[in-house]
Amino acid sequence: MIVAGGILLIGVLVFAASLWLSIAYFGIRPFVAAEYGQGLPNPSAFGDRVVGYAEASEPQKGVNRVRLRLENGGERVAWLTVRDTTAPTAEPAERTISTLVTLKPTDLIEHLADADLVGVSFASVPPFGTVGDYSVEILLEDVSNNKTSLESTLHIRVVNEGVTIEAGEDAPSVESFLIDDYAVERVAGLDAQTIRTPGKHSVFVTIDGETYETFLTVTDTVAPTAETQTLFLKPGTNPDPADFLRNVSDGSDVSAAFLQAPDPDVRTFQTVEIRLTDAAGNTFDCTASLLFTDILPITIEARNSVLTIEDCFPDGVPEGAALLTSFITNRLGTFSVSVAVDGTEEMAIIEVVDTTAPVLYVRKQKYYTNHPLPTEELYTAVVDGTETTVTASEIDWSFEGVQTVTLTAVDAAGNESEDSFELTLVRDAVAPTLYGVRDRNAYVGEPVAYLAEVFATDALDGEIAVTVDASAVDPNRAGTYTVTYTATDLSGNATVKSCRFTFTNPTVSEEELRALTTEIVARVTTPDMTKTENLVALYRYVYDRITYNGKSDKTDWRKEAVNGIRLGVGDCFTYYATLRALLDETDIEYMSVTRKGGATRHFWLLVNVGTGWYHLDANHNATAHWECFMWTNAQCASPAGFWTFDQSLYPAVATEPFVASAVIAAEKAERNESIETE
What angle do CA 413, 417, 419 make, to 5 degrees? Predict the structure, then answer.
């Protein structure tokens, strides 16, 4: 024993000596302690000369061997003792459950933390299934016997704390008050008045014979709304604010009060101000109109006649009552008129309605293919108290034969009526009429206005296009050539006429003639003259300027126009040519006319200023001082044969005598109206 003890002592002394030498000589701690879960300590924990680990693994509880790397490059073995001395941690978790639910201890904690495995248990199991509020002790113990306890709160309920709704919403379901899926036997406190009354209200739910209290909280954050209406009341009536309201909307009860009360002495429309207040104090302000009147609003059927005093008093007109406003009841809507009652002017409100469908009068129609008619020409009349629109069913205007057409009339109120008729379409077989195709003169080498004074009209198509075939003409060589004109209407009917154009070499240029006529027109007319006033001025110039001597060159009208202006002598051709040249400076429409028959030739013009065609001839001599200014055929009948012409070449001449003063007045009135419109 003594020997063994000595040996042990000697060993301890040797180990101690070695440990002392390691620490003293090498500066190394061979044994270091660490907490479990914190990993390897910093190498410097083994001594200042240790710069790192040469060999080490994730430490486990107990003694772990590590190899250290020293600053001199050497290595040493050391021992790391790892222990678990830290108790586990967690946070309590408050829970609310139903009586039908059981929890595990881990359900009442959260954020559990420890370096090792932890056991979780109840210190005492809560009374699951029993309603109440409980403080539950939870025990935590890791495998190293480190222990912790904490307190969690557990609420066991059948019903929740309650439900919140906006006043006026639908009542919440019973299920919304329950914690779990219970079979409810009875509910009290969810009546219609409760859900409209702001506040916190008790609700009682009975389950399995036990009654539980929860709460319904009713809030009201929305102001009431309402529509207002105009009131018409007899004088002396005291209206209530509610009389002006309709469609009041709010989740709670609403009261109304005047902010601006009506004035009983006013006999025109007045505005009243009303405030709505709900049970929570939310407010809504609105306005309405009020009229105190002895004449209550009336409704009458639209008609094209004037409102009468009898219309305003359908139950009998008071003595002395009279209309002060004239009103035609052919417009839909609400209108006011003034009425005198007992010497006081009052306002009557008239609502014009239209409840009667329009009456449409149609007729059998016969017309031509490919010539659509506007709808208004398909009926003779439409009768209604308001403006009416008429539409027609689809019509095939290319179909030759009979087809049924339906007309629909819709008035301003939407009342509708229909009627049908038979429309017979036939082909147009009448060719158009060509005017102004006559033998004419032209100048060699100058542009030819083949369509000047030439036009065509058709009974159905009106004025239509004219084509010219001048292929036989050599405009650069003197001679007489045939020119053919063709006019074709929409139905394909064509009229063809030919005439001769005689080309002569010009003796007077167009520029030379224009220089003379431009100066004359500027001298004898003014910019503010009407078309007829210009015509009068130019006619007077030619009539007064030229003296008849019976001589002219009838092959050259420009030459004769210059002679008329410069020399002032000539015959009918000179008068004609000069007046024609001056009219070319205006926008006055004219056509050249040559006498048909007779021993000599005679020339003059047909002119249209917008009132129809008339004869215009400035020719006169010492024995014949007529003034043929815008004459009709009847006025040109004497002397017999003097103004005879081929009427088939020209449009019809007006039959009403031309009164220059009246035409000028109408032109000025039209011009002034146009200026005012602009």
Answer: 155
> pLDDT of 547-565, one tens digit each?
999 999 998 999 999 999 9
How far apart CA 482 and CA 41 sit, in angstroms, is 128
- Say yes or no: 518 and 662 in one domain: yes
Mean pLDDT over the full length of the chain: 90
Compute the C-alpha angle 529/532/537, nearest 5°.
Answer: 70
Rounded Cα–Cα distance for residues 99 and 101 (Å): 6
List, for the chain, all residue ranges whose pLDDT scores fall below the cut of 70.
1-26, 675-678
* Pair 290, 228: CB distance under 8 Å: no
CB 647 within 8 A of CB 595: no
**DSSP letter at 73?**
S
**Contact criterion met (CB below 8 Å) for 603 and 571:** no
Check whether residue 526 and residue 633 sit in a common domain.
yes
Q: Are residues 209 and 231 in the same domain?
A: no
Structure tokens at 675: 């200026």
Total number of domains in the chain: 8
Residue 649 near residue 436 (C-beta atoms within 8 A): yes
Q: Has residue 448 been placed in a domain?
A: yes
The CA-atom distances, in angstroms, between 543 and each of 438, 569, 570 are 26, 11, 12
In the chain, the amino acid numbered 15 is F
Rounded (5°) CA angle 602-652-609: 85
DSSP β-bridge partners for residue 94: none
Domain of residue 271: give its range: 225-292
Helix or strand (DSSP H, E) at 92: strand 89-92
Q: Are 88 and 118 in contact (CB under 8 A)?
A: yes
pTM of this prediction exceeds 0.90: no
